[in-house]
Amino acid sequence: MSTPWDDLDDRSRQAVDASVETFARIRPALDAVRQDAEARLRDAFAGSDLVPLFFSSRTKSVESFRAKASRTEPGQSGDGPPTLVFPKPLAQIADLVGVRVITTLPEENSSAANLIKRQRSQFDCRSDREKDIGSIESGTYGYSSRHLILRTIHNDVVREFQRQLEPDAKPTGNYAFEVQIRTIFAHAWSEIEHDIRFKADDPRAWSPHFDRQFTATAAMLESVEHAFSDLNENYNRVRSYWDPDGEGAAPLTAERIREVWQTLLPHVDRKSRDDWAWAIELLDAHGIDTTLGLVELLQADAISDVRKALEHRYSPGPDRLLDDLLLWRFGTDHIDATAEPAGADSTPRRDSLQRRLAQMRRYRDQQPE
């Protein structure tokens, strides 16, 4: 099984061998650069609201360096011998040192990248690429990651590495390395895909079906990521409703009631009419005029109890369910506040509420203490 190095001509092979020998000699010093880069990136996130799941880093192995340094491209004349893609691999290969920042949700990738790029006293960002843009624009699925090329600035650990690399040159402390930012799902996919596609012991062990499976799993993972992002967004919205000094203090309008209802109870939405002014009247009758007051009323356990107590033949809409929840909490006060006067000639609403309240009381009496 041949490798790119095996296919080199004698002149290119000698150049690559010399670079590999130098890389093997200075790799321990380069590994110190790797450790320092990861530590500085960890420190950049300390105290931040964004907390990555984990960090990892690696210094390219000698074998991997040889393979990348051996890459060739057609000669400029078109009919000449192939030329090395990296004639000066120690200076031209930007991922000899790589750091990974693994996040939970896709939207955190952008925040992480921006936070890193703000560390201008330590790093200069030389490149910033979304590696999934091509897949999105082509309508396909695949690898997804944010790649930054950072350059250290007057770094003493880098200076020591540079002294070992070129003893006669003045060390600058500037060195480029790669940072990959991706979600835990994209990380798992890329690790498995890389092991099978690029690190297989026998490259003949391949089938086009593997490509289909990788594409399918990438699509599924993207759907999972979007679902978790939606879940996290909804959770943060609901959590904000419980803040008495923030969103919880927001006054109830028809639009606000609809928003809260559709967030908490999307499965109990209106089938017709989109006017929620009726809800304001019901809630005002009990002095519920803030978002916090509404979410306190729309609790899942209360809704379950109401459903069990009334044994609805049909799933109630928002108007009936809100009415029942207020009746569950306030009892006869709700009847007196929202129904016809007791002595009126016709009292259909009062009669209906009293029947439902009696059912609720029987249900409560049957529950264990």
Automatic annotation (TrEMBL):
Region entry Disordered, spans: 338-369
Gene3D superfamilies per UniProt: Beta Polymerase, domain 2 (3.30.460.10)
Record SUPFAM superfamilies: Nucleotidyltransferase
A GO term, aspect molecular function: transferase activity
GO biological process: guanosine tetraphosphate metabolic process
Keyword Ligase among UniProt keywords: no
Residue span(s) of domain RelA/SpoT: 57-204
Keyword terms of this UniProt record: Transferase
Matches recorded under PANTHER family: GTP PYROPHOSPHATASE-RELATED, RELA_SPOT DOMAIN-CONTAINING PROTEIN
Record's protein name: PpGpp synthetase/RelA/SpoT-type nucleotidyltransferase
